[in-house]
Amino acid sequence: MSAAGVQRVLLKPEPSTWHALAAQAWAAKSADATAFRTQLGLPTDRPIIMTGHQPGFFHPGILAKYIAAHELAKRIQGCAAAVVVDHDAEGATTIETPSRDANGTLSTVTLDCTAAPDHSSDPLPIVAEAVHAARQYFSQASGTPAERAESANASLLSPWFTAQSFNAGEILQTDLGTSLINRMAADPLAVAHAYNDALREHPGTGIRPLRINERNPEQTELPLWWISSTGTRQPVDAHEIATPPCEACLAPRALLLTAILRLAGCELFIHGTGGGVYDRASASWFHSWLGRELAPMVVASADVTLPIEAPGANLEEIASAAWTAHRAKHDPAQLRDISSATAKRALAQEIARSTDKESRLQKYTQMHALLAQYRLDHTEELTDLEEKAVHLRGQVRRARIAGRRDWPAVLHGHAALDALAGEIAHRLARAPVPADVSCE
Question: Quick check: 63 and 160 in contact, CB under 8 A?
Fold first, then answer.
């Protein structure tokens, strides 16, 4: 039986410091903040704790960010806000769910809310009701498929968080977004060099540097995407700003997206583990390029598993069984066939001592003929060993499916998500709220 429920909650740095981080940022919020937040429909009279993700049915590790934003905002009388990365909506309408194949073996199936249910691969009974609810909420929502998935996910998870959402596509349409685009277009080398320097300063982000053309700066790449009407994206060169491709719109890349939001949109940005790595470069980039400081960022994540029964084998058992099955095909001693083992060893020694090519080839052929006969004589035993290795490998695959931490959060029961929210709230509650953290 796979261990189920909350396995781990990650909050970095120590969550008792988050209140003070937000208070300091609120006291030092930038001059751009009021206009920027107003244009995005965000409040201007209280601190904002922000997070975000692509639209769709995200897993509990992502949910942990939203719960943390909700709980911290509630404690400091602030507002929890969430950016929907609407230009990255691939797979938004799909739900990965555990199932069993025609043989009854635990497997994974991907369901699409835009398609009719396919009962040839039904989800496991423990998540069937949740999948049905997700489909219902999706069918009742309005907007594009991605917007409907986002709405369904937020509705199903509303017992654990509320956040004021806005689309990433709106950010570049603000006065601040427009001014930054104009500055990039006016001096593409400055922004690109600062961007690449920040990536070198913070290795391991997984983000590639911008392409720089010193001889023709207009052909220098900017930290933006062109998003086509079909959702495909392509890099943006400086000279293209004035003449965009047909029916394409601009969207910020990851570093620019969170850098703008940390510059003027929030007092604290809560990342997952991935964002907590790549966004280290944002502060260095904006400090070098613009001489501006960003609001702090923190990390929240969690491992939560479903109560799926799956007998598992450990990696040592797998390695041992695989080695034994392989070795037994080539070493008769593994099956205690002493006669064949002795004969093979003698032939191997003769091959090693021989200096005559023809003689070595003859002995080599004799040895393989001996092994072929040995395998024929022990077919049943060798088959049993191979089947055992295959069975154990299958157990590991099934155990990995059962122990996955990235099943959609909407598939988890209320008890597990209550426990997740309770743990995050408890750890945030350890710190006193600074007196100057809110406007009240």
Answer: yes
CA-based radius of gyration for the chain: 29
In residues, how long is the chain?
440
Encoding tokens for residue 100? 């069993």
The Cβ of residue 428 has, within 10 Å, a number of other Cβ atoms equal to 21
- CB contact set of 123 (below 8 Å; sequence gap of 6+): 97, 98, 99, 109, 111, 131
> What SS3 class is residue 165?
strand
DSSP letters of 244-284?
PPTT-EEEE-HHHHHHHIIIII-SEEEE-HHHHHHTHHHHH
The DSSP secondary-structure symbol of 239 reads: G
Other residues' Cβ atoms within 10 Å of the Cβ of residue 414: 9
Q: Start-end ranges of CATH 3.40.50 in the chain?
A: 5-90+162-220+252-306+406-428
Handedness of CA 367, 368, 371, 377 (dihedral sign): negative
Class of domain 5-90+162-220+252-306+406-428: alpha beta
Q: Name the residue among 152, 64, 53, 138 with its Cα closest to residue 405.
A: 64
The rounded distance, in Å, linking the Cα atoms of 72 and 300 is 12
CA distance 230 to 252: 17
Neighbours of 102 (CB within 10 A): 8
> Which two three-digit tokens encode residue 130?
């949740």
Q: Determine the pLDDT at residue 392.
A: 65
CA distance 112 to 121: 12
Q: Which residues pair with 80 in a beta bridge?
A: 49
Sequence-separated (6 or more) residues with CB below 8 Å from residue 181: 172, 224, 241, 250
Residues paired with residue 164 on neighbouring β-strands, in sequence order: 81
* Pair 94, 410: CB distance under 8 Å: no
pLDDT digits (tens, 9 = 90+) for 341-360: 999 999 999 999 998 999 99
CB atoms within 10 A of CB 73: 26
What is the DSSP code string of 305-361?
E---------HHHHHHHHHHHHHHHH-GGGGT-HHHHHHHHHHHHHHHH---HHHHH
Global confidence as pTM: 0.81
Decide: helix, strand or coil at residue 192.
Answer: helix
One-letter identity of residue 428: L
For residue 440, pLDDT over 50 is answered with: no
Helices (H) and strands (E) in the chain, counts: 15, 11
